[in-house]
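Deviations from the work plan: none for this task. Representative record:
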Amino acid sequence: MNQLLMLFMQLYVFVLAGILGYVVISRVPALLHTPLMSASNAISGISLVGSLVAAGSDYGVLSTVLGTVAVTAATINVVGGFMITDRMLKMFKRDGADKP
Amino acid sequence: MRDVLIQVLYLASSVLFILGLKGLSSAKSARNGMFLAELGMLLAVVGTLLHLEVVRFQWILVGLTVGSVIGAAMAIFMPMTAMPQRIAISHAFGALAATLVGISEYSRHGTDLSHGTMAALGFEVMFGSLTVTGSLMAFGKLQELMRGAPITYRFQNLLNISLFIATFGLFIFLIFEPSRADLFYLMIGLSFLIGVLMVLPIGGADMPVVISLLNSYAGLASAATGFAIGNNVLIIAGALDGTSGFLLSIIMSKAMNRSFANVIFGAFGAVAEGGPARTAEGLTVRRMTVEDAAVQLAYARSVIVVPGYGMAVARAQEAVREVAEQVEKRGGEVKFAIHPVAGRMPGHMNVLLAEANVPYNKLFEMDEINGQFAGADVALVVGANDVVNPAARTDKSSPIYGMPILNVDQAKSVIVLKRSMNPGFAGIENDLFYGPKTSMLFGDARDSLTKLAVEMKNV
């Protein structure tokens, strides 16, 4: 029973976050759809959280190996994702203002 | 106490992610928003490192360092034209991390997993692993490591669907019998295979939908990880990523007037198998020289540029801007019309034009600009094809019938830059090219446009 209750608490969080995400993201203009993709990519690097535990805990060699690879992959997304999003966003300029 | 601090950090991080995405609602606030999201990620990592479970840091450090170096190198050196590939492969990385965490959790707990946790873990590795191979396939097609055209064979859909049902059956079985490690790994193997087979029949023009869909899957896999290890920040970030990808794929499908199912199961190239509805025989195109085009553009009061994937292939965005500047120097007005599925990923054209320093207030979405073509002196089509094909409005037998298009054919005159008369990615003839108002300027788009800009100075 307790298990089931916890699952429902998690479902609450998931569904509400999903709806909130839908509302927030539907306001992103088409202009910024590519930065949106790379940003959400960087944010999906949040699997880093799970990977760090697997890599850093004392649960045997397999867990450490898989965890380390996972940390690497997730970090590529986090670091690369945020950096390239910023690189892109820097390029978006309005008329004239920024020209020398 | 420590646990409370960790939860506080996770909560702050979740809020920052949402605020970060909210920042993307305008180009002005976007960079600040991303800063908030970065801060959120930092807090989440710090919070995780505080966990008592985390006892050794050497391997974490290795992973973080290697990952940062690779990630930074990719971000700094990757040309903007390669963005679709980069996005595709990063979905593979994200999904790989989720899958590996899932396998590690499973191998650790094995038999004593509860049904609920097993459901989450199973979902995580199933969606994770099919996203890994699917994204790698998409990467391969976009990077042109393999043929970009749809690869189809008999009973393809039947095979794919049966494979999926079998895999899903294993998933359900494992929820009740978590101890069957052999079936767990079989499920992963089958999911890898599904990822490959799913993307095989998908052609380049459909890539925006598929990339968005894989984005969504990667997010869902992360969220499932959150369910499995009981971590809310993972659930929230995964849900945000999942809805983002889902929303984008809906927008992209709508822009092609096709359903999800049609994109996944109806390979674009395969639709025409019943025999092409029309052929180009007997029709002639009007060729023009760079000089002709220069004169026409130099005296145009209003020009609408329609960029397509061809612009990305030829890396012609800088040259496009040069031509636009020449028009403006002579007092003409230039606007850019961006079709939602122009290119290989959502927003592809916007990014390339921004890179070439075209101000974003000159970029217009389809609905904003479609009414203005009739008043335009010249519509300059740079490597776009299907998104300007009038057959989408008129020809019921055309595979793209019903797809909303840019009303280029309503402009007073049309100049089409094209490499050759080969039909577009979808393999469909385009009546626009044979229209009475249309002139074709053949050749490499960048080359032609550069010459055009020079020539216009002399007019």
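The radius of gyration of chain B is 25 Å.
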